Amino acid sequence: MEECVILDLHSQKIGTSDALGNIPTFLSMIGRYFGPEFLLKLYLSGAVAGSVFYLVYHAFIVPSLQTQRRQVLSMHPSQTPGLGASGAVNAVMLLDIFLFPTKIIYFNFVIPVPAILLGIFIIGKDVVRILEGDTQVSGSAHLGGAAMAAIAWARVRRGRF
Protein backbone atom coordinates (compact mmCIF):
# COMPACT_ATOMS: atom_id res chain seq x y z
CA MET A 1 0.00 0.00 0.00
CA GLU A 2 1.45 3.34 -1.05
CA GLU A 3 1.65 6.13 1.51
CA CYS A 4 0.84 9.70 0.59
CA VAL A 5 1.30 13.01 2.35
CA ILE A 6 -0.68 16.21 2.10
CA LEU A 7 1.55 19.29 2.18
CA ASP A 8 0.31 22.86 2.15
CA LEU A 9 3.14 25.11 1.00
CA HIS A 10 1.25 28.30 1.75
CA SER A 11 2.91 28.27 5.16
CA GLN A 12 6.33 28.29 3.45
CA LYS A 13 5.84 32.05 2.96
CA ILE A 14 5.55 32.58 6.70
CA GLY A 15 8.82 30.91 7.62
CA THR A 16 9.13 28.80 10.72
CA SER A 17 5.38 28.39 11.20
CA ASP A 18 5.62 25.47 8.76
CA ALA A 19 6.95 23.47 11.71
CA LEU A 20 3.46 23.31 13.16
CA GLY A 21 1.57 22.60 9.95
CA ASN A 22 3.66 20.12 7.97
CA ILE A 23 6.25 18.49 10.13
CA PRO A 24 4.16 16.00 12.17
CA THR A 25 3.67 13.68 9.19
CA PHE A 26 7.35 13.73 8.25
CA LEU A 27 8.41 13.35 11.88
CA SER A 28 6.30 10.25 12.29
CA MET A 29 7.64 8.70 9.08
CA ILE A 30 11.32 9.27 9.86
CA GLY A 31 10.79 8.30 13.50
CA ARG A 32 9.00 5.12 12.46
CA TYR A 33 11.77 4.03 10.07
CA PHE A 34 14.86 4.98 12.08
CA GLY A 35 13.70 5.51 15.65
CA PRO A 36 13.30 8.55 17.89
CA GLU A 37 17.02 8.92 18.64
CA PHE A 38 17.88 9.27 14.93
CA LEU A 39 14.98 11.70 14.49
CA LEU A 40 16.15 13.87 17.38
CA LYS A 41 19.73 13.92 16.07
CA LEU A 42 18.52 14.85 12.58
CA TYR A 43 16.22 17.58 13.88
CA LEU A 44 18.87 19.15 16.12
CA SER A 45 21.62 18.89 13.51
CA GLY A 46 19.29 20.51 10.97
CA ALA A 47 18.70 23.39 13.39
CA VAL A 48 22.44 23.83 13.97
CA ALA A 49 23.26 23.60 10.25
CA GLY A 50 20.51 26.13 9.48
CA SER A 51 21.94 28.52 12.05
CA VAL A 52 25.48 28.11 10.72
CA PHE A 53 24.38 28.70 7.12
CA TYR A 54 22.43 31.77 8.24
CA LEU A 55 25.43 33.21 10.10
CA VAL A 56 27.86 32.47 7.26
CA TYR A 57 25.47 34.07 4.78
CA HIS A 58 25.19 37.25 6.84
CA ALA A 59 28.91 37.37 7.67
CA PHE A 60 30.36 36.77 4.21
CA ILE A 61 27.78 36.98 1.43
CA VAL A 62 25.56 39.91 2.44
CA PRO A 63 28.49 42.35 2.81
CA SER A 64 29.59 41.53 -0.75
CA LEU A 65 26.13 42.52 -1.98
CA GLN A 66 26.32 46.05 -0.53
CA THR A 67 26.34 47.85 -3.84
CA GLN A 68 23.82 45.55 -5.52
CA ARG A 69 21.06 45.29 -2.92
CA ARG A 70 20.64 48.08 -0.41
CA GLN A 71 17.35 46.65 0.94
CA VAL A 72 19.10 43.56 2.32
CA LEU A 73 21.47 45.72 4.30
CA SER A 74 18.82 48.14 5.49
CA MET A 75 17.72 45.58 8.08
CA HIS A 76 19.98 44.46 10.88
CA PRO A 77 20.62 40.68 10.67
CA SER A 78 18.97 40.19 14.06
CA GLN A 79 15.69 41.41 12.54
CA THR A 80 15.76 38.83 9.74
CA PRO A 81 13.97 35.59 10.57
CA GLY A 82 16.57 32.89 10.25
CA LEU A 83 17.27 31.12 13.49
CA GLY A 84 14.67 28.68 14.64
CA ALA A 85 12.96 25.64 13.26
CA SER A 86 13.51 26.36 9.55
CA GLY A 87 16.66 24.29 9.14
CA ALA A 88 15.35 21.50 11.36
CA VAL A 89 12.06 21.27 9.49
CA ASN A 90 13.77 21.23 6.10
CA ALA A 91 16.21 18.54 7.26
CA VAL A 92 13.39 16.18 8.25
CA MET A 93 11.14 16.96 5.27
CA LEU A 94 13.89 16.69 2.68
CA LEU A 95 15.37 13.50 4.13
CA ASP A 96 11.96 11.91 3.76
CA ILE A 97 11.76 13.20 0.18
CA PHE A 98 15.29 11.96 -0.61
CA LEU A 99 14.51 8.51 0.79
CA PHE A 100 11.12 8.14 -0.90
CA PRO A 101 11.26 10.26 -4.09
CA THR A 102 8.34 8.54 -5.82
CA LYS A 103 5.92 8.96 -2.92
CA ILE A 104 2.90 11.09 -3.85
CA ILE A 105 2.50 14.37 -1.97
CA TYR A 106 -0.66 16.41 -2.39
CA PHE A 107 0.52 19.95 -3.07
CA ASN A 108 -1.89 22.46 -1.48
CA PHE A 109 -4.24 19.55 -0.67
CA VAL A 110 -5.23 19.10 -4.32
CA ILE A 111 -2.45 18.45 -6.81
CA PRO A 112 -0.72 15.04 -6.61
CA VAL A 113 3.02 15.50 -7.14
CA PRO A 114 5.92 13.05 -6.85
CA ALA A 115 7.97 13.96 -3.79
CA ILE A 116 11.17 14.54 -5.79
CA LEU A 117 9.55 17.37 -7.76
CA LEU A 118 8.40 19.00 -4.55
CA GLY A 119 11.92 18.64 -3.13
CA ILE A 120 13.38 20.36 -6.18
CA PHE A 121 10.79 23.12 -5.82
CA ILE A 122 11.55 23.65 -2.11
CA ILE A 123 15.32 23.84 -2.62
CA GLY A 124 14.94 26.00 -5.73
CA LYS A 125 12.63 28.40 -3.91
CA ASP A 126 15.22 28.82 -1.15
CA VAL A 127 17.99 29.51 -3.67
CA VAL A 128 15.79 32.13 -5.34
CA ARG A 129 15.12 33.72 -1.92
CA ILE A 130 18.85 34.12 -1.40
CA LEU A 131 19.47 35.50 -4.89
CA GLU A 132 16.61 37.99 -4.58
CA GLY A 133 17.63 39.08 -1.08
CA ASP A 134 14.35 38.06 0.58
CA THR A 135 14.35 39.59 4.06
CA GLN A 136 11.17 37.88 5.24
CA VAL A 137 12.29 34.23 5.11
CA SER A 138 15.86 33.02 5.47
CA GLY A 139 16.62 30.83 2.50
CA SER A 140 20.12 30.27 3.88
CA ALA A 141 18.76 28.64 7.04
CA HIS A 142 16.51 26.41 4.92
CA LEU A 143 19.48 25.39 2.77
CA GLY A 144 21.43 24.49 5.90
CA GLY A 145 18.71 22.00 6.75
CA ALA A 146 18.75 20.73 3.17
CA ALA A 147 22.49 20.15 3.42
CA MET A 148 22.01 18.19 6.64
CA ALA A 149 19.32 16.08 4.95
CA ALA A 150 21.72 15.34 2.08
CA ILE A 151 24.43 14.27 4.55
CA ALA A 152 21.98 12.07 6.46
CA TRP A 153 20.71 10.56 3.20
CA ALA A 154 24.26 9.69 2.13
CA ARG A 155 24.96 8.07 5.51
CA VAL A 156 21.72 6.06 5.39
CA ARG A 157 22.57 4.81 1.89
CA ARG A 158 25.96 3.63 3.16
CA GLY A 159 24.31 1.92 6.12
CA ARG A 160 25.97 4.22 8.65
CA PHE A 161 23.04 5.80 10.44
Automatic annotation (TrEMBL):
It is a multi-pass membrane protein. It comes from the Eukaryota. GO terms for molecular function: serine-type endopeptidase activity. Keywords: Hydrolase, Membrane, Transmembrane, Transmembrane helix. Residues 26-153 form the Peptidase S54 rhomboid domain. The chain crosses the membrane at residues 38-60, 80-99, 106-124, 136-156. This is Peptidase S54 rhomboid domain-containing protein. It comes from Solanum verrucosum.
